[in-house]
Amino acid sequence: MDNATYNYSSDCTPLTSCKSARKPAGSTAVNMGHAPKRAPKDYLLWSLCNTLYVNFCCLGFMALIYSIKARDQKTLGDLRAAQECSDKAKWYNILASGWNLLVPLLLLGLVVLLLVHLGTSEGSFDFFGEDGFQTFMNLFSFNS
Fold first, then answer.
1. Environment class of residue 86 by beta-carbon count within 10 Å: exposed (0-12), middle (13-18) or buried (19+)?
2. CA gap 127, 49 in Å, rounded
3. Residue 63 buriedness (CB in 10 A; 0-12 / 13-18 / 19+)
4. Burial label, 68 (beta-carbon count in 10 A; 0-12, 13-18, 19+)
């Protein structure tokens, strides 16, 4: 045993239900060390989908590279590096997904505007004006 001396009241001994020795009611937080961190997500499936669809400026491919790096770092146990690669993969995926949604929406809007314009115009639209096409073609003719 140890050499410490303990003073208890006469009616209380350790491991008994003595109310005078109890601490007042309240909450106590006990820190048992670092809680195990959750492994970061690698966004591999999202990156693969962005790589296979449109892939403007290789944003999906960059996301795929960082997703694989995040998975490798997670396997090695380096959670800090895995989190950094995971964050980069996430942002590349956000950019690639935004572009993948923007391009078809812009094309759809262009087609709708074209159809509306063609539906409201009467007859053919003479782009060069009256005799303008002939004047334009004369600029490129080699007859002097």
1. buried
2. 43
3. buried
4. middle
| Tokens encoding 28 | 């106590």
Specify the pTM: 0.56
Q: Nearest 5 degrees, angle CA 8-CA 13-CA 18?
A: 95
CA 124 to chain CA mean position, Å: 48
Residue 144, token pair as written in the block? 């002097």
CB 72 within 8 A of CB 79: no
DSSP, res 107: H
CA-to-CA distance for 85 and 43, rounded, in angstroms?
Answer: 10
Helix (H) or strand (E) holding 96: helix 79-120
Given a contact cutoff of 8 angstroms between Cβ atoms, the answer to whether 62 and 54 are in contact is no
65 alpha-carbon distance from chain centroid: 14
Task: Determine how many CB atoms are found less than 10 A away from the CB of residue 41.
Answer: 17
- pLDDT tens-place string over residues 43-74: 999 999 999 987 878 899 999 999 999 999 99
- In contact, 28 and 72? CB cutoff 8 Å: no
pLDDT at residue 23 above 80?
no
